[in-house]
Task: structure prediction
Amino acid sequence: MSCGNNSNTTLPQIKSSQDYIRILVNMDELRIFENPSIDSEQIGIAKLGSKMNYAGEMTDFSTRIKLGGVWYDEPWVSVATAKGDTAWVYGGGIMFEGEDSEELSELLLQKRMKSFFGKLTDDIIEYREQYANARTSKEFSIVFHEGEELRDRIVELLEQKIPTAEAENLPDIFWIENIFPGYVVEVVAEGTKYFLFKDFKQLYSKARQTTGDEDDIFTDLGLEVYARDSIEYFFPSWFIQTWDYGGHSLLGSGKHNDVLALADEVSQMTSLFKKDIDIFKKEILKDITHPEITYWNNQEKIMDELDSILITKYDILSKEDLVVLEARQNQFKNPSKNGIELNVRTGE
Result:
């Protein structure tokens, strides 16, 4: 842990009900100091996940410290020791919890955002406010798409700030979920980096709070696409992941048809999510037609689902889409001749 210079030593008393505020340690081996300074005497170490009592003070100055390879610039927080004395821990390694902790948590997160995200902080704050204040399906769609764009910028910043490392050495940044609603933080790339994924369970709950049904049915679609646990992973419900970077199409299980049917319903109801419907449709068509895709199910099941899709002729499928699907259907009639690997589930 390395540090920069302190600005001053004023210690404002924060009014709180200490009995209901606890400090949760979110880094391993958080050092406990006698005074709020890296140069003070170290009097203990707190393990990841341990809890301490908040002693009611937070410094109005911050200290620049490197934790887990990432620079933070945060205040110090007082804790009560077992002997009843007051000690200090660095704010970058803790979170508040308890009935009266909301104001403190927000204060700490505001400081953390500014030091961690820099110029992006204002955009994240604006997104949070728009998300909280969205009252209609249209407002939901606007903040949904702004969130996607902002997510990409956050992920880019994470790649710059956090060096690739083994999972046990990655700094804890799950606090981002508290400032970026609608998304969850996940460790990807074999446990070496972070990514932010949409959580359609959160989005579904928010959509139910707005007027209009358009965002309701769209988030229903998101839950159908990411049916396993509502989280937007790299592989949707119509694909079974069998190794870190790939797997097999589930064509023949009915999932392609289910998603197309619901996407078609959303498309007929509203144009607010047209871009998203087009993305889902293109991904489904790619999963059916790409020459390098392998298929989990047997020929009979695959042909049955393709027949159903072609007979239904969903409005979201253009004439060109149907032509491509019909051509692929003909290839499935003779898979070995056309280099198509089927029935991977059985290994036959």
Observations:
- The chain has three domains: 18-99, 118-234, 237-348.
- The domain at 18-99 is CATH 2.30.30.40 (SH3 type barrels.).
- The longest strand covers residues 51-58.
